Predict the structure of ABC transmembrane type-1 domain-containing protein.
Amino acid sequence: MSDNNNTEIPSKTEEIVDVDPNETSDRNVTSSNNEENSNKPKFFQRFRGKTEDKKPPVAVSVASLFRYATMLDIIYMLLGTVGGLSNGILLPLMIVVFGGLLNSFTDRSADLCKLNFTALAIEYCPKGYQLTASNYLSSVSICHFNETTLDFQGEVKKQTLYLVGIGCASLVLGYIQIVFWSMAAERQTKAIRQKLFQSILR
């Protein structure tokens, strides 16, 4: 009887894990949900389309970008570039001239503080005329100052003419820049359209 009740004992002990059937079903549900979420496109990908399938754009060189340009188009582009560079130089130049104009104002105020109005009135003004800092500018025509005194009006006029010249040059150079680049772009666009139309007809 003892022989019949003998059972075979495995040589290697196996680990027995108690698994809840509800837990296994939960794992299956979460794994299936993860797969579905990974397959679904994200919110912004719906509008962009599939970005994974798109190949990266090929870089285009400058020579191939202007391969439809003729020699006249290249001349137009060079003239437009020169006009654009010259127009860009005018802004720092205008700042320098405007700084000189401001310096003439500040130098004038400094010189008025240093002037000896009594000596100037005796030397240049009519007898008995009283010269002060407040009436100095209005007394230029009365007192007949010579060139040794500061010509404030002449200095301001010269700086103002410089500013007017810079403004006119800026208008002309900006016009040259826009016109020549626009002409070159229109001519190249026309050439590309003609090539495309010829390839469609073939």
